[in-house]
Amino acid sequence: MANDTTEGSITFEGAQLHYRTRGAGEPLLLLHGFTGSGGDWVHLFDLDDLARRFLLIMPDARGHGRSTNPSGAFTHRQCARDVIALCDHLGVARCKAIGLSLGGNTLLHLATAHPDRVAAMVLIGAPSYFPAQARAIMRMFGPDAHTPDEWTAMRARHAHGDDQIRALWRTAVGFADSHDDMTFTPPHLATIRARTMIVTGDRDPLYPLEIFVEQYRAIPEAALCVLPNGGHDAVFGPARAEFVRSALAFLQS
Q1: Residue 15 class from Cβ within 10 Å (0-12 exposed, 13-18 middle, 19+ buried)?
Q2: 4: which of 26, 179, 180, 251 lies 20 to 30 Å off by Cα?
Q3: Which H helix or E strand runs over 164?
Q4: Closest to 80 (Cα-Cα) out of 12, 176, 168, 5
Q5: Which 8-state DSSP code applies to residue 108?
Q6: How far apart, in whole angstroms, are the C-alpha atoms of residue 92 and residue 89?
Q7: For the structural domain made of 5-131+183-248, what CATH number should be given?
Q8: Please, are residues 1 and 15 in contact by the beta-carbon 8 Å criterion?
């Protein structure tokens, strides 16, 4: 049945990678944001409805949710390799995709390294590189900087205990000094063949609008959606319904 969810895992490059599938039809990959998990999509989409349109593939990125990351090393490039391995395991040669922040960064790597694997994608708050203002915020994400409520929310998402959560927050701090993972130039973006919808809030404290305008100009088949008065989480706010309508229309057009 379309509303039944199947769970599984694969082992790839040192990690056990957990995933959920749901629905039937054309594959739609849903890649969550940093410190999130594959279960987060219930807060954005009506998954019952979405599963009647697509075969949903919802992985937990390595080190997130029920996925492991024993080495502690983490890059968006590695996440793209993980996604390709999962798609190969599921027999999915080509798909459509939606990526939120970390998930969108992963799709940039996937769509440039394997341009034939992605037919269309929606990138939400996914920059080409980390600007100085984002790096300053990342440096404040250490494990000691979070409130009890934030710990409670993280414990609800991540199955492997507080050490897993601390590792994720240390990874966020590490992004501040990473310069060899998120480094997409306009010529590199121009190699993307997927139809691409770029989504950002115009008040994102991490990533200024100019980054996404540059993406729009560089990616050959791109559309730009700017959510007014929206921050990094703009798609979860008042613009949610309009975003969902626009994103699904774009993917199905």
Answers
A1: buried
A2: 251
A3: helix 162-175
A4: 12
A5: H
A6: 8
A7: 3.40.50.1820
A8: no
Which pLDDT does position 4 carry in this prediction? 83
The mean of the pLDDT values for the chain is 96
**Cα dihedral 145, 240, 51, 117 in deg (nearest 10):** -70
Sheet of 195-201, strand order = 5-12, 15-23, 54-59, 26-31, 95-100, 118-124, 195-201, 222-227
Q: Which two tokens stand for residue 64?
A: 């997130």
Whose CA is closest to 99, among 81, 115, 79? 79
List all residues 6 or more positions away from 180 whose beta carbon is below 8 Å from its beta carbon.
Answer: none
Q: Are 240 and 248 in contact (CB under 8 A)?
A: no
List strand residue ranges (DSSP E) for 136-181, in order. Answer: none
Nearest to 110 by CA among 91, 124, 130, 96: 96
**What digits encode the pLDDT tens for the residues 120-130?**
999 999 999 99
Handedness of CA 95, 187, 126, 170 (dihedral sign): positive
**What pLDDT, in 10s, does the model give residues 12-67?**
999 999 999 999 999 999 999 999 999 999 999 999 999 999 999 999 999 999 99
Question: pLDDT tens, 187-233?
Answer: 999 999 999 999 999 999 999 999 999 999 999 999 999 999 999 99
pTM of the model: 0.96
Contacts of 120 (CB under 8 A, 6+ apart): 96, 97, 194, 195, 196, 197, 250, 251
What stretches of 14-126 show up as alpha helix (H) in DSSP? 47-51, 76-90, 102-113
Instruction: Please give the angle made by the CA atoms of 29, 75 and 72, to the nearest 5 degrees.
Output: 115
DSSP lists the bridge partners of residue 100 as 124
